[in-house]
Amino acid sequence: MKKHILVVPGDGIGAEVTTVGKQVLEAIARKFGHEFTYDEALIGHVAIEATGSPLPGETLTKMRAADAILFGAVGHPKYDNDPTAKVRPEQGLLQMRKELGLYANLRPIKLFDELLDASSIKPEILRGADILFFRELTGDVYFGKRERLDEGNTAYDTMIYSKYEVERIVRKAFEAARTRNKRLCSVDKANVLESSRLWREVVQAIAPEYADVEVEHQFIDAAAMLLIKDPKRFDVVVTGNLFGDILTDEASQIAGSMGMLASASVGDNTGVYEPIHGSAHDITGKGVANPLASVLSVALMLDISFGLKAEAEAVVGAVDAVLKAGYRTRDIAGPTTQPEHVLGTDAMGQQILQLLQA
Ligand code: IPM
Ligand code: MG
Known about the structure:
The chain is of the alpha/beta class. Helix content is 41%, strand content 20%. It folds into 2 domains: 1-108 and 261-358, 3-Layer(aba) Sandwich (Isopropylmalate Dehydrogenase), CATH 3.40.718; 120-255, Isopropylmalate Dehydrogenase (3-Layer(aba) Sandwich). It has 13 helices and 14 strands. β11 and β12 form a beta hairpin. α1 (14-32) packs across α11, α1 (14-32) packs parallel to α13 (345-357) and α7 crosses α8 (194-206). The structure holds 3-isopropylmalic acid (IPM) and magnesium ion (MG). Residues 245, 249 line the site of magnesium ion.
C-alpha cells in the first residue's frame, strides 16, 4: 500500500515522541511491504517563532495533501501565564481541527495489565476496564463566540451546538458501540444547560435506530465520579468538546499514565493521530518522555485511516510485549520495576523496533 504521511511534531516533547512514532511506521512499512512517504510541517509555538502564525498556510496545504497526520503536541509555558497574548500555540491546533473538519476525537482507554501498579487507582477497580471515548472536537465552548465587555472586566464564552453536529458524532459512537459491548453512555449537563438538552434530545431521537445498543445518560459531574468509582461500567462514551477534554484526562489514570494514551481525530477527510498528553516542557530535551502514546497513535492510524488491521495489531502487540518484558519509561515505572528496566525515550523506541524487525 502507498501512503503519504505528514509528521507534525509541534512543541516540547512532540519532536521526541513523533521521532519514535515515525520509526515505527518505517518498521511496519519494511515488515509488511508498504511504501510510506513522509513530509514534515510546523505548528504551535515553533511555527509562531518561524512564521508568526501558529498554523502557517504551508502546513495546512501539506495537511490537506496527506493521507494521514502524525501529530506531536502544542503549547509553551510562556503563554500559560500570559492571558493577554494575542497569538497562542493552541490556536494552531484548534484551527487545524476546524479546517480539516476533525469533528470526532476517539480516545481509547485500555489498561495494559502490566501497568496495573502504575495507576493511583486500586488494581481491582481497574482490571478489565476498556472504554472508548468519542469527544466532539469542532464545536462547543471551544468555538462559540467569546468576548470581553465592560472595559475588559467581564468576559463570556458561548457553549453552542447545532443538531447536525451532535448527530454526526453520536452516530459514530453508536456504530462503534455495535462493534464492542453494545453500551453507550452519553454525557451532558442537561439539568442546567440548553445545549445539553439539545444534545440529549438528539441522542434519544437516534437511539431507536440502534435498538441493539443499550443507552444511558449521565450528567458530567456524575460521570466524572463514576469513571473513578467503577470504570468497568463504561463501554463507549460520547460527549461534547469541553466535557470530553476533562473526562479523558481523568480517564488517562485508568490507563496508568497520560503517557500511554493515543487518540485519533477524524472527520470526512485526513485523520490526525496524536498522544493526548501535551508538550510537557518540564521534561523536554531530557530524553525521558514516554513515546508509547505516539506509538499507539501510529497503531490507530494504521487501523482507522489505512484499514491495516494486522499492522496495527503488530504495533500494539509490540507495546504489550515490551511492557511484559518489564521495560518502563519513568512515568509508568512502579514499585516493582527494576531500575535497569527504566528506559528513556529512544531506548524504549529501540525495544519496540527490535520486536517489529523480528
Ligand atoms: C487536548 C488538549 C487541547 C484541548 C489543548 C492543548 C487546547 O488539552 O487535545 O485535549 O483542550 O483540546
Ligand atoms: Mg486535553
